[in-house]
Amino acid sequence: MTRLWWVSLATEMRQTTGEVSRLAGWCSDNNLSLNVEKTKEIVVDFRRAHTQHVPLTINGATVESVSSTKFLGVHITEDLSWTDNTAALAKKSQQRLYFLRKLRRARAPPPIMYTFYRGTIESILTSCITVWYGACNASCRKTLQRIVRAAEKIIGVSLPSLQDIYGTRLTRKALCIAGDPTHPSHSFFSLLPSGRRLWSLQARTSRLKDSFIHQAVRKLNSLPNLPLPSLFCPR
């Protein structure tokens, strides 16, 4: 049995219906069965005039349409905000702080507590951080950073901020994509004729401006020197 998460753009509903039909046919031909009960659909529609969306069907069964769901540990909502995801990460991290305090009461040395923090708290706070952190509002960022500051007081050492971790991972991921010609997003990292900067991507909304690709291009352009310009896609 296979379960599926499906994110549909309202402007591409007809194409989505066709893709789902082809997917169901492929699964049937390859002796796979889609679990329709566990399959969820999220419709992303930012148009001012909302229309009634025709529900997806798989083998005659209607796919449940939801406003939010959890995929690979990340909470995704139909408005592409990250409030639910932030709340879930904060709740889980707060639970781990209890055990960090227990280590301090047991007089564990700071290196041990730091290792525990990196493995059980920071790993939660930074899970898929390149996907959502750039689009988080200030309130969500403060909520998560507050947990880092609490851990600093418990351990007694300075800890890297989430903003610094995000910047490091964003740069690393962007260079990884730019250096892989087979990656679907490789073409977005194109050099200007000067070879010193990347083409800036146009964005009409702050939602698109704060997405991963746009953030990554701006991050690489902010570096003093672009590393290995030969990695990038020629224009």
UniProtKB/TrEMBL annotation:
Signal peptide (residue range): none
Residues in Alkylated DNA repair protein AlkB homologue 8 N-terminal domain copies: 82-123
Pfam families tied to this protein: ALKBH8_N
Residues annotated as transmembrane: none
Top-level taxon of the source organism: Eukaryota
InterPro entries, sorted: AlkB_hom8_N
Annotated GO MF terms: 2-oxoglutarate-dependent dioxygenase activity; methyltransferase activity
PANTHER family cross-referenced by the UniProt entry: REVERSE TRANSCRIPTASE DOMAIN-CONTAINING PROTEIN
Protein name (Swiss-Prot/TrEMBL): Alkylated DNA repair protein AlkB homologue 8 N-terminal domain-containing protein
Species for this entry: Cyprinus carpio carpio
